[in-house]
Amino acid sequence: MKGKVLIGLGGVLALLIAGYFAFWPTASKLESQAVAKAFEEYRSALLNQDGKAAVACVSSTTLKMYQEYRDLAVSGDEQTIKNLSMINRMQVLLIRHRMDPKLLVPMDGQAVFAHGVDQNWIGKNSVVRAGLQDIAVSGPRATARVTAEGKPTRELFHFVKEGDRWTLDLVPTIKATDQVLQLAARNKGMKENVFLFSVISSLSGRRVTDAIWLPLE
The pTM is what? Predict the structure, then answer.
């Protein structure tokens, strides 16, 4: 009888423990929540045009890419720039066209990224109606489906965990935009560089000339 009582108590205890841990967040769920939080912090930084805060939200590979953009904008020659992918060509030429050389030259890639957010060039429109769903975490990397006004899109955001912090990796998003630009140019019946000049002129409000191909120093 005593043995049956002990077994009964053991079973009850097991059920209580199982019930307790059923409400305990799993490691995967905690990581997904951290990814969602990282996106909200980035979104808030862009909406507030807070470049310093935005820099803290993006991956080291993103800032490395902006360092490359800065270096090419300052010293890249015409042929080097023309050999870039369409999206990278546009990014470099936009920086070169928009920024005063006296301001740009002393900057590093991190400062260029922060300045772009401060000026709303890396801007609110990209995130104001955006959200995330279907967050999938795999080790130090994660992806999430981008939503627009609550509806899923075909776009994915990519995240990478650096140290104990999740950051947004914009490199895959930037690369994916290259195909969008190529398609837009073809649909307009325009050569790539002519199309880019029209886009840059529209974004900056200033006419683009062939002088944009010349390095700043």
Answer: 0.85
